[in-house]
Design brief:
By secondary structure, this protein is an alpha/beta fold. Helix content is 36%, strand content 12%.
Length: 384
């Protein structure tokens, strides 16, 4: 049996409804911004509005990376500034900080692979302007606590919510306690489009307007340019795809959560070789990634792959140890939890299109692997 990591072929086994929705857009030649993009933005903002709070502004842009960089720029972050973030993330987090001329400053992670809030204040310097927490795997940082830290020091917050569509902490979605939150619509995200795309959420209309200008060359209208911007529009075709997929986003998210809970319960007895991370009951963890900590990760990965389970590793090298980060001056040992996580992380297929027999196969294969490695513990190598 093969258990695929990507669910896209199943999600689009019948693409006709989406293709039909795109037909009038193509026939009208309506490819850039316009009412369909605005409708997507409004619905996205509605889905991420905290109970009892005003709906934020949403701005569709060309990618999640651009969403991060545009949010930073709109808040005035640039050369000479430092932005505190996590090394346990996709490289785009730090990359966006560097794109605007600022410097990433890392703090170690906690046992949920998220920014360790107890270490944030120790990383603040005179150059610190902002904090960029990462809602890694679809789990959420305690934003209310982080906002308290930021306010004490006069700092801005831009959330990297690229993996956290429809996540929440204590009922508050990304964007509730920050100055801006950035999301990715990459095809493997929980809510996605047919290519690259991103969204910035903000409660500040001035920030939203600044991003609208920047994403579209700084154009006020066809002939007038207010600022020198860039081309980072969310394409109309992608907004139509995103709007249709949003209709099932909550259902798909609940299905992901159900798969994750099934794994949590079934795999708990495999400790200490397989460690299910702690779960915070206040979080709606949306499981863009279902990640475990495992001993003999590479052996276990090969065991699973050889038996048809398309497990992955996210990510084998933490950002501070990447070649691109050499100029930041970090060394191995600076962030021991993030480094241990990178050496032991294993991601299982956990998408809403998995079949019952596939979930059972993943569980059984992990159980078989733990038994196999326990029996061969004294051997330095394993014959798979």
């Amino acid at each position: 049996m093969k258990v695929p990591f990507s669910y896209l072929p199943r999600q689009f086994s019948d693409p006709e409804p989406l293709l039909e929705a795109l037909r009038p857009v193509v026939q009208a030649g309506d490819f850039t911004l316009g009412p369909r993009v605005e409708a997507f933005e409004s619905r996205f903002a509605e889905l991420h509005t905290a109970p009892g709070r005003d709906q934020p502004w949403a701005v569709g842009v060309g990618s999640g990376t651009d969403a991060l960089a545009l949010a930073l720029e709109a808040l005035g972050i640039g050369p000479g500034d430092e932005v505190i973030t996590s090394p346990s993330t996709f490289v785009a987090t730090a990359g966006a900080i560097v794109m605007v001329g600022a410097r990433p400053v890392f703090v170690d992670t906690d046992d949920r692979y998220l920014m360790d809030l107890e270490q944030v204040e120790g990383a603040i310097t005179k150059a610190t302007r902002a904090i960029m927490p990462v809602h890694y795997t679809g789990d959420m940082v305690d934003m209310r606590t982080l906002r308290g830290i930021a306010d004490r020091h006069g700092l801005l917050i831009v959330e990297d919510a690229c993996q956290a569509v429809l996540a929440s902490f204590d009922g508050d979605p990304p964007g509730t306690w920050s100055h801006a939150a950035a999301f990715s619509l990459h095809p493997l995200k929980n809510l996605h489009v047919w290519g690259d795309g991103g969204v910035v959420l903000t409660g500040d209309p001035a920030v939203a307007e600044a991003i609208r200008l920047q994403r579209n060359h700084g154009l006020v209208n066809r002939d007038e340019v207010a600022v020198f911007g860039r081309n980072s529009r969310l394409h109309t075709l992608q907004a139509v795809v995103g709007s249709l997929l949003m209709e099932g986003a909550d259902q798909d998210t609940n299905a992901r959560i159900a798969v994750a809970r099934r794994y949590d319960e079934a795999l708990a007895h495999l400790a200490p070789m397989v460690q299910v991370p702690p779960r915070d009951s206040r979080t709606r963890h949306v499981y863009h990634l279902y990640v475990l900590q495992v001993d003999r990760r590479d052996d276990l990965l090969a065991f699973l792959n050889n038996r048809g389970v398309e497990a992955k590793v996210h990510y084998p090298i933490p950002v501070h140890l990447q070649k691109a980060a050499e100029g930041l001056g970090y060394q191995r040992g600076d962030f021991p939890r993030a480094e241990a996580y990178a050496e032991q992380a294993l991601t299982l297929p956990a998408n809403p299109y998995l079949r019952e027999e596939e979930i059972a196969h993943v569980i059984h294969t992990l159980e078989e692997a733990v038994e196999h490695f326990a029996a061969s513990r004294t051997s330095p190598t394993v014959n798979l």
